[in-house]
Amino acid sequence: MANLNRVLLMGNLTRDLEIKYGKNGQPVTNLRLAVNRTYMTQSGEKKEEVCFVTVVVWGKQAESCHTYLKKGSAIFVEGRLQYRTWEAEGGEKKNVLEVVAERVQFLDKKKKEGEAAQEHAEEAPDAPPPADEQPF
């Protein structure tokens, strides 16, 4: 049986970004993304639910995200799911399911002195580092 690990998400950032550097000096940032879903109940009532997702972005793409994105920015993410476990201080086991971004597209339009509105798209220039390196 074939396998597929592909994630497509569109939403808004819930906080400003921090950039850090891995053991090998590669930049990394975590995006916290709010993805909304609107639906109708059987009684006809309109409901909305929000799902919060952590997206890990590596390399040059992480630097671009840190430079151009802020809390509330709308983005489209293509990536894959990754499950990580680690031991925190005090010996407590931690785990997380997150999205590792392969592509982040900036959806907010910005006008620059008479220029037409533009969309920014950044492609990951290289593969993320090994799974043993923790983003943060």
Instruction: State the separation between the terminal residues, measured CA to CA.
Output: 34 Å
Strand line-up in the sheet with most strands: 1-3-4-6-5
Whole-number total of structural domains: 1
Q: Could you give the order of the helices and strands?
A: EEEEHEEE
Protein topology:
Layout (H helix, E strand, L loop, with lengths): L6 E7 L5 E3 L5 E14 L5 E13 H10 L5 E14 L5 E18 L7 E6 L13
Parallel strand pairs: 4-6
Antiparallel strand pairs: 1-3, 1-5, 2-3, 3-4, 5-6, 6-7
Summary, kept brief:
With 136 residues, this protein is mainly beta.
Describe this structure in words.
With 136 residues, the chain is mainly β. It has one domain: Nucleic acid-binding proteins (OB fold (Dihydrolipoamide Acetyltransferase, E2P), Beta Barrel), CATH 2.40.50. 7% of the residues lie in helices and 55% in strands. The protein is built from one helix and seven strands, in the order E-E-E-E-H-E-E-E. It has a five-stranded mixed beta barrel with strand order 1-3-4-6-5. The longest helix is centred in the middle third of the chain and has 10 residues, at 59-68. The model is unreliable at 113-127 (pLDDT under 50).
Observed structural traits:
about 140 residues; mainly beta; OB fold (Dihydrolipoamide Acetyltransferase, E2P); 5-stranded mixed beta barrel; 1 helix; about 55% strand
